[in-house]
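User: Please run a holo structure prediction.
Assistant: Happy to. Please share the sequence and the ligand.
User: Here you go; the ligand is zinc ion.
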Amino acid sequence: MKNILEAKFMVEAIRTFSNLYRLGWDERNGGNLTYLLTDDDVRDYLDTTKVIREIPFDFDGSALIGKMFLVTGTGEYFKNIQYEPEKDLGIIRIGATGRVAELLWGFRGGNKFTSELPSHLMSHISRLSVDPLHRVVIHSHPTYTVAMSLTHALTEREFTRSLWKVQTESIVVFPEGISVLPWMVCGNNEIGAATAKKLTTTRICVWTAHGIYGTGRTLDEAFGLIETVEKAAQLFMLTEGHDRINEISDRQLKELAASFGLNYRKDYLD
Ligand code: 13P
Ligand code: ZN
């Protein structure tokens, strides 16, 4: 077997954790990530017949039986993952009952998957139902996005419009808009189900006074979505209290959408 730390998915994931930390979006143990792995990803690196231990969870993941995920450990610091990935990360496979994770690699020292596993796995189920190529869920705490969730109306139409109007790239990168959840207790099945429901229509969901869920077919896509929302939120918050006399108008957004051939939320523009 080759060294799994040199596998493409692992190298990319570890770079992603370091970037998320460097950007200040994953303080302490904030944030978590799950990455759906294919047999091709792991074939040369992992003996999938060897289960290190089984870790139960308390929700129905039967839609994902047999699927493997790279997953962050609960309580681990993104800033440290690059130095001890085999302690801070795990590769799990959803077992035959749909309620147990078979640990195939990692979590050396006895840790287990993120407390947000329900939200992640339910989100994967949702996204796979609308996009068979979907693979990545990133939860992060980007500063300006969270700040905006504290001061902005939480209606998805208004939230999306505010992000679209301060940055030309916004409607191009997330033409379907973004979802927003009101504040909820995190780490349980309830927020998982609510997030997953939102993610059937958008790839992004903001958690008020907490953070964001970004999804995608690749790490870059999920990361790039979060990055683009966060940049727009930063522009929005930096211009709060000022007259945005040059913000992008609905007419201009429509021109942009026509020029880029976007399938955008028409009802979000007048
Ligand atoms: P975990 O350390 O369990 O992944 O939790 C971090 C977090 O961001 C909770 O929302
Ligand atoms: Zn969080």
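The chain has a mean pLDDT of 98.
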